[in-house]
Amino acid sequence: MDHTPLQDQLISIYSRNREDSHATQRKRAWCLGAAARALTEKFGLQKLDNLKQKHVVFLVERWKETDTGRRSIEEKLTYLRWILQKIGKQNLLPKTNRELGIEPGPRHTRAGKVVTNDRLAEILTALPDPRIQSAVLLARHVGLRFKEAMLLRPWRDWDGTRVWIKRGSKGGRPRYLFVHNEAQREVLEGARRLASKEGALIPREWPTWESWRQHVYPILRAAGVGFHDLRRSYVVDRMDGLINDQGLDPERAAALVAREVGHSRTEVLRWYLELI
């Protein structure tokens, strides 16, 4: 099948933006390619420069009519937000799916748990490598994903006050958060002791991120480590501190914590926390 100019433009954007896993890239390309064909057939749209509100509304309504599950629609909206952000037209889509009349769909993974201090101590004891232990602590106390923790350069990305998450972030979107307690400082200082001045937590003898990941994942599974649980524990503690200790409005607290853990929408926090 011949590509339309709109599809060719999408392919060019994909080639310059290869963040996320290969599976996610494939699903995103398939979804947006189908959307591009639909827009060309319906409106004759040839360039993303000419994308307007009516085109976005058309896609959303089309997905709502044809999709069988809310989770599928949520995924497509995530891909649509991705491309709108790349072309500087993110304002064409509301920030929350509820504004589109779409309630959060079911998450087909196990429910998260809060990792107690006793359980965290058991996990750390079961891990043989201090670098892996450090990544676990960064997830629990700073809210980092596994890849973000392993690629963090603690000497460069933490200035004593603010932590920058620049590498390994979901969607390739850098973010920062301010250190707000002594436990975080201790964890970050521990990471500094393990890393070189310019380096991350991955040992030098492991030449690539992928080879290190394949080495570490079986170790994490054997120890029963769930980074989702560790991040959820950070979210629970952080929300509790902001709302109950600092008196912050729940919506404002949710917006702050969502940004800290790398989610663009507070809706996603509902999977981590039933409080909001």
List keywords for this structure.
276 residues; 13 helices; globular
Task: Describe the overall structure.
The protein has helices spanning 5-16, 22-43, 53-66, 70-86, 117-126, 130-142, 146-151, 154-157, 182-194, 209-222, 227-245, 250-261, 269-272; strands at 162-165, 175-178. It is mainly α and 276 residues long. The chain folds into 2 domains: 5-100; 117-272, Intergrase catalytic core (hpI Integrase, Chain A). A two-stranded antiparallel ribbon has the order 1-2. Helix 1 (5-16) runs antiparallel to helix 2, helix 6 packs parallel to helix 11 and helix 11 runs antiparallel to helix 12 (250-261). The longest helix is centred in the first third of the chain and has 22 residues, at 22-43. The chain is globular, with a radius of gyration of 21 Å.
Topology:
Elements: H1 5-16, H2 22-43, H3 53-66, H4 70-86, H5 117-126, H6 130-142, H7 146-151, H8 154-157, E1 162-165, E2 175-178, H9 182-194, H10 209-222, H11 227-245, H12 250-261, H13 269-272
Antiparallel strand pairs: 1-2
Helix pairs in contact: 1-2, 6-9, 6-11, 11-12
* CATH class category name of the largest domain: Mainly Alpha
- Secondary structure tally, helices: 13
CATH topology (level 3) name of the largest domain: hpI Integrase, Chain A
Mean pLDDT: 86
Number of strands: 2
Please give the order of strands in the largest beta sheet.
1-2
Estimate percent helicity.
55-70%
Termini separation comes to 47 Å
Q: Which spans have pLDDT < 50 for at least 5 consecutive residues?
A: 106-111
What order do the SSEs take from the amino end to the carboxyl end, as H and E?
HHHHHHHHEEHHHHH
Structural class: mainly alpha
Task: Indicate how many domains the architecture comprises.
Answer: 2
Rg over C-alpha atoms, rounded to the nearest angstrom: 21 Å
Please identify, by name, the CATH architecture of the largest domain: Orthogonal Bundle
